Amino acid sequence: MDTALQPVSGIVELFHHDPGRERQKILELEARMFAAVGEGIARELPVRHVFIKGGYAREMTIPAGCLIVGHIHRDESFAFVTRGHITVLTEEGVKDIVGPTTIFTAPAGVKRVGYAHTETVWTTIHVTDETNFERMIEVLTVPSYEEYDALFAPKLELK
């Protein structure tokens, strides 16, 4: 499950693109959100799991006014918003998404922060043979940017 915080104040400042500082901003927000979950202020959102041979879809309904932080995915995936309006912040900048959308790609190694202006249904589709939804976070994501870089950064060969 992803973590959501409701209600949100200072949302405009959060989504101000600050190149070179986005990663730190996202990690600081995530730490505050996990603390809020522990204090009962925030909660994890339920996820609907759908499997087909070689594929897995995660569908989440994000209530209006919620701020959400996602995981860092090991591989790229497909995503789409079937309903709602959400603003998404990544290291690359800010994107406003209004559903229904066509399918777009969600790159690997990226952590996203989203603010749902209206109730939003977000679905991500992954290529995987895993069928145990309880293992999906472990199989599809990494816990940190450092681990992602260690696993997937191009290795220099010494000659």
| Distance between the amino and carboxyl termini | 45 Å
What CATH first level would be assigned?
Mainly Beta
- Number of structurally distinct domains: 1
CATH architecture: Sandwich
* DSSP, total strands: 13
CATH topology: Jelly Rolls
CATH superfamily: Jelly Rolls
Could you estimate the helical fraction of the residues in percent?
10-25%
Number of helices: 4
Q: How many strands, what sense, and barrel or not for the largest sheet?
A: 6 strands, antiparallel
Structural class from helices and strands? alpha+beta
| Large-scale geometry | globular
> pLDDT under 50 segments (min length 5)?
5-9
| N to C succession of SSEs | EHHEEEEEEEEEEEHEH
Our estimate of the beta-strand percent is: 35-45%
Layout of secondary structure:
Elements: E1 3-5, H1 11-14, H2 22-38, E2 42-44, E3 48-52, E4 55-62, E5 67-69, E6 72-73, E7 77-83, E8 85-90, E9 93-98, E10 104-106, E11 113-116, E12 120-127, H3 136-140, E13 141-142, H4 145-152
Antiparallel strand pairs: 1-2, 1-5, 3-4, 4-12, 5-11, 6-13, 7-10, 7-12, 8-9, 8-11
